[in-house]
Design brief:
This is PhnA protein. With 250 residues, the protein is mostly helical. The protein contains nine helices and nine strands. 24% of the residues are buried. It binds zinc ion (2 copies).
């Protein structure tokens, strides 16, 4: 037995094959997605931004996918470089291809790509690129605050079910559950003044879903120790307490 060089699971040794069957499949799916979905979508963001810049109009803040703190151009450059590198390994002349031709060359050389001695490293590099692309292509209102980057203290955002997160500022990569756990600890130091509905909205930014009715209910039953203010229905809420109550409630 030998181990898959990507997921480390034991696998039947197949000649010159460093990736197990399921990693080969996932790797191939990422390659297809890069040229089929991600690069065209990133390019269209670039075009829109160029157009917005040219006409001087403010960018629309609708639900259209817009990169956050990430320049689509940088993501496109990294994606294209990855494709050119792989295409160049098939035949050195392919390294000079534009991304679409390089991608098509890769697609028509499936076995060469999957059996490449560098496949495990190439797959890991592509995973990283693909995750960053995915994050940039996720509409802003689907993103939540995952926490704070331990290295540079910038805010980390991502999708609610993200397993890992890359800091858009310092490019370091973190496991999302640990970042979230640290965030929930820090929520105990965060207070907001407002109505139960304001508290529910604030928690939603962290991906914690709670109805304002439930917040009101907890207040009435004395489960939640929010401090009333002189204004009607306005309280000082501790977000850590709310998050902890929500955790018990689920
Ligand atoms: Zn594997
Ligand atoms: Zn950072």
């Amino acid at each position: 037995m030998t181990n898959c060089q990507h997921c480390q699971k034991p696998m039947k040794p197949i000649a010159a094959n460093l990736l197990c069957a399921s990693c080969r499949e996932n790797y191939w799916a990422l390659i297809r997605q890069l040229g089929h979905v991600q690069l065209p979508a990133l390019s269209s963001i670039m075009l829109k931004q160029a157009h917005i810049g040219a006409t001087g109009h403010a960018p629309s803040r609708g639900s259209a996918p817009m990169p956050i703190d990430t320049h689509a151009q940088a993501l496109i450059t990294d994606s294209e470089a990855w494709l050119a590198e792989q295409a160049g390994k098939i035949r050195s002349a392919y390294a000079g291809y534009g991304w679409r031709k390089a991608w098509l060359a890769i697609l028509s050389n499936r076995h060469t790509i999957l059996d490449m001695p560098t496949a495990a490293d190439d797959y890991a590099a592509l995973e990283h690129i693909s995750r960053r692309n995915e994050a940039a292509l996720t509409p802003e209102d689907e993103l939540i605050i995952l926490g704070t980057c331990p290295t540079c203290r910038h805010q980390l955002t991502g999708t609610p079910d993200a397993e890992s997160v890359t800091c858009q500022h310092c490019r370091s990569e973190w496991a999302a559950p640990a970042i979230k756990a640290a965030r929930d600890q820090r929520l105990w130091q965060v207070q907001i003044t407002g109505t139960p509905s304001d508290a529910a909205k604030e928690l939603k930014r962290y991906g914690l879903t709670i109805s304002r009715n439930l917040v009101s209910q907890w207040l009435r039953r004395g489960k939640l120790h929010a401090t009333p203010t002189e204004h009607k229905r306005q309280y000082v809420f501790n977000l850590g307490e709310l998050a902890a109550l929500l955790d018990c409630h689920r």
